Amino acid sequence: MLILACYAKRLWPALLLLLAACATTPSLTAPEGKDVSLVFGHIDMSEAPSDLHWVTMQRLRPVTDTPYYSFWVVDGTFFRINVPAGTYKFTKFGGHSGWKNTSYTYGFPSQGQSKLDRRIDRPGLYYAGSWKYRKVKTGFFQTGKFDVEASGTPSELELLQKMLPYADHPHWKQMIEQRIRELKK
Question: Per the structure, how many domains does the chain have?
Fold first, then answer.
């Protein structure tokens, strides 16, 4: 019994990590209300010092007590369901560099409208675009400057096809399939 307790003590952190990984698996589940949307896009991080692991968007209007929305990320594609109508601003994104064992946070400009920002007027699918991280050349003492440029790849159609397997609820599955049919015409 003592040996089992020792193993359980050692395995506990691994079990917690496993449970956390399962909890973050993307799943487009039942919509939370009738007037919600799916927002999605892609950032190519091939020139960045890290991969893309997270994206955050803030609801500016109408004002709310919980204005921040986190996105699921799969191979650079980010998506979020249950986004209500409003004006939104993408605030930050980031990731981890395994070989450097370092986490990175990249911030979008806090003033003005960013290239990814969206206004959601009615329920639907909102494509925030496909972008590429570009390092900005600076002087010797300045580092860490970047920009995101429109890349067009992967296309909206490719991103929808990539998200479709995660559409566990018929509501999202039907919306995605309908948009795929429209784009294939």
Answer: 1
Per-position b or e across 41-80, b if 16+ CB within 10 A of its CB: bbbbbeebebbbebbbbbbeeeeeeebebebbbbebbbbb
Confirm whether 47 is domain-assigned.
yes
Question: What is the dihedral sign for C-alpha 66, 80, 175, 172?
Answer: negative
| Residue-range definition of the domain harbouring residue 167 | 35-184
Measured in whole angstroms, the distance separating CA 115 from the mean position of its chain's CA atoms is: 15
For residue 66 the two structure tokens come to 């919980």
Determine, yes or no, domain membership for 21. no
- Residue 32 near residue 172 (C-beta atoms within 8 A): no
Mean pLDDT per segment of 10 residues, for the chain of length 185 residues?
A: 40 37 74 94 94 96 94 97 96 87 86 79 96 77 72 96 97 98 95
Whether the CB-CB separation of 158 and 42 falls below 8 Å is answered with no
**Residue 28 covered by a domain:** no
